[in-house]
Amino acid sequence: MLRYILFRILQVIPVLLGTTFLIYFMVFAMPGDPILAMFGDKTPSAAQLERLHAQYNLDKPFIVQYLLYLKGVFVGDFGTSFSGQPVSEILARTFPITATLAIMAIAIELVLAVVIGLFSGLRKGKLFDNVNLIIGLIFMSVPIFVVAFIAQYTLGLNLKWFPATVGSDTSIKALLLPAIVLGISLYATSMRLTRSSVIDTLNQDFVRTAYAKGLSRSRVVPVHVLRNSLIPTITNSAANFGVLLVGATVTEGIFNVPGVGNTLYQAITRGENATVVSFVTVMVLVYLGVNLIVDLLYAVLDPRIRYA
Q1: CB-count burial class (<10 Å; 0-12, 13-18, 19+) for 65
Q2: CATH number of the domain at 92-270, please?
Q3: Model confidence pLDDT, tens digit, residues 54-65
Q4: Model-level pTM?
Q5: 3-state secondary structure string, 264-299?
Q6: What φ, ψ does residue 86 adopt, rounded to 5°?
Q7: Element (H, E) at 198
């Protein structure tokens, strides 16, 4: 097990270097001068441009900029945004908000997917199963911004069950509506995976053996069927969690959530290399960490899986 963990940690190094290099290059290749864009309609003097280019290392070749950035990362310096604020402070302010939103959304997704998927699998071909397959297909087909606008207008503005926007109030109550939107939009795929896995597990020999030994259905379903059916669901939810940490930009924009997605989008439009790459670097580390934890959970969920 320890050897496997060390091997996975070593795999992070080339992935991290490749990802940061690619993102840095894409930001570097964007047209226009980010310093000029920062001034908007105003025109800075040549001396100001030269000073700011030197301050943010924009007067150096691409590879030199990238190596200077890596040097700063290894000593804990993620650089400074064009607003003069350290990127580490921006991360410390926005990441907990997005992480909280992602955890709430994944919790909602898992509860819906496991409960509905389990009962659909146990009642294959019956009314409950068919209705939920149709509902799941609808949620898979409708774009998330449509679900977000409907939820915001209906539950937030008309019924006033939830705050319509988040803004400066980043409490769990304020984040609940966007979390519900994200969870509902994601649950359909996990529900189908759970359902398929439950149906497949019910036909396995060890389930028949459990029934043959006289175990009750209430014992066989949660211990033998559900536990062995969760691996594809957990894998999909882990991937969704990583996506939510960096990919909830649309939902964060609609609900005005001051999280990673909004900040990253603004940094991309302003061409802030250090901010964009630093955010992506942290997100890659988190995503790889989540996948490592999920791999280790496989052995807990399925005793047949062992790591040498």
Answers
A1: buried
A2: 1.10.3720.10
A3: 777 777 888 888
A4: 0.75
A5: HHHHHHHCCHHHHHHHHHHHHHHHHHHHHHHHHHHH
A6: -60, 140
A7: helix 172-202
